[in-house]
Amino acid sequence: MTLYFENARLIDPEAGEERRGNLIVDGARIAAVDAAGPPKGAQVIDCASKCLAPGIVDIGVQVGEPGARHKESFRSAGRAAAAGGVTTIVTRPDTDPAIDTPEVLEFVTRRAQAETPVNMRPMAALTRGRAGREMVEIGFLMDAGAVAFTDTDHVVTNTRVLSRCLTYARSLGALVIGHPQDPGLSRGAAATSGKFAALRGLPSVSPMAERLGLDRDIGLVEMTGARYHADQITTRRALPPLRRAKANGLDITVGISIHHLTLNELDVGDYRTFFKLTPPLRSEDDRAAMVEAVDSGLIDVICSMHTPQDEESKRLPFEEAASGAVGLETLLPASMRLYHSGELTLPQLFRAMALNPARRLGLPAGRLAAGAPADLVLFDPDAPFLLDRFALHSKSKNTPFDEARLQGRVLACFVAGRRVHAKETA
Amino acid sequence: MSFRARHLLGIEHLGPDEITALLDLADRYVALGRSAAKHADVLAGMTQINMFFEASTRTQSSFELAGKRLGADVMNMAMQASSLKKGETLIDTAMTLNAMHPDLLVVRHPNSGAVDLLAQKVTCAVLNAGDGRHEHPTQALLDALTIRRAKGRLHRLTVAICGDIAHSRVARSNLLLLGKMENRVRLVGPPTLMPAQAAEFGVEVTDDMREGLRDADVVMMLRLQRERMDGAFIPSEREYYHRFGLDAEKLAHAKGDAIVMHPGPMNRGVEIDGTLADDINRSVIQEQVEMGVAVRMAAMELLARNLRAARENGDG
Asked: Are A367 and A13 spatial neighbours (Cβ–Cβ below 8 Å)?
């Protein structure tokens, strides 16, 4: 099957530019960009001047399999991803039980293959049961397809355990993903310390806890030479040590969730639990600093940190409510806020949402180039809409963007040259 | 009458005119409470439910007495002992109670914001009797009434709030109310018991009692919870009393006619000297208890009035 996308606004994160052009897909791969005309027999898709970009590679998606399928199954997550222009979900191991053996990893891989139209790459836990004591079978898990190792928001508090994990991971070239947070300071916190948290009477954590966690991890990376990615850096104070570590040549990258780039602590308002996240939303000053850090390339990856929670987990007093937000379907439209505000360009956004995460995980996706996988998203960055959370494909509807005015709709999504989503009216 | 609120969830949502209106009405109930009859029947036929998810003797009995003096049918529910142990959620409990058609729901809960959440789900008027570290509006109102009666005004006073500010809903509500009424507020306490960036509230912050009390008109002491004295927030009880406990020597830095307040229950010899607490020339702690009943009567009457008006307009 050959597809010819004509009249497209090509978003090329590798070249860091956007331009008018066409693109040919042959089978599962991109065959050519900017060809002279459609090859014989190709199906022509008129993009009508809308944007064609590499599909999003979303690091850190939580699916409720195994253990919480009522919150999100591979089927619902896959549909949500396709509708959101996410062509690769990189799943988290914080399931029940945790994904910490090759057997569980094979189970989720099989489930994903059977149920999702998008690519799925699993991450595995770094320690058994994410308990921070014994390392998992990193080698076997890599053979089974694990692309990274992380205990997610369970910080490995024992530095001796973590240093051994990093040392062992380094010998296999495995990527370790940390959650930079000092667990002593952040325990029980539901908000970032400051005037807002004090007025609301919420237990809070100093933004310094993130820097303390990052400082420690940087030290251990320098000691072991491991490949390291921080799941989310969300505070201004963490940036100077990060800049130094990168300048010193350590193999460190960092990510941030779209929520921390587009929302701040005041959005919690009168205890709105859909805005309760881990780490908690930060000050506007921190948010602005994070956008600048994405602009300068200091922050490498933007993700959705998709965390489905059902109504029962959220309809509780703020301190007791579950943390996290769904984001697969809202990542792209929310990111368009940064484009429309003039803070980031489309190639910059797709560098952080597609190219960089793919590169970091050693995946060939994220590029508009001959030979790359035909994982593509066609979207209209201007189309306005009012988000209705009950229209989301996710089983869980816990989005902070409920009833928000957003711009940017996915018109179609292709995985390996196959159309996996088309807007109903498109 | 300028009291518009549907619920009393916090001082944050009240305007200065609403605070004044409520205190004016409360003044009348103080007089009633001192008379022989003590009864007004403005809540006759109405049902008041007190839901306390956290143990309380003073506040609960004060609300109960206030409701009874206004002629309401008052029911107390000890929530620690009931459905929460059976796994029922706060929302379900609220819905169950709502089906009994109460008119006034008085709620205390250990989590900040829990009373706001409950208020969204019921059709009656909700009074916050203390939620976590967030607000305790009737305490701030009774403190305001006590101050107004002792000082003759509720503006341009210097008020020192001393002790465990960080964990105190009483401090939150008081600093909001005193700020709205244009007073000068000082927060005094050890830095481990002070919220981060407390100065951003538009108040003065100090960890020196003598400096904090200097020329104060009102000295408001807060209770220090026993579980915070074990070396986690302060080194010891005796060091705390030495540095932050109110005694005659420290009080001498305040104005000569400064009044001493405490929301109770007191830890004598920890945050306040026992003799000073009983000194009727300085301490208004007993008056605070009396004002509590009057302020709660006023708050419930005003909310009941708004509730009736809303029901007559068909949007209750």
From this structure: yes
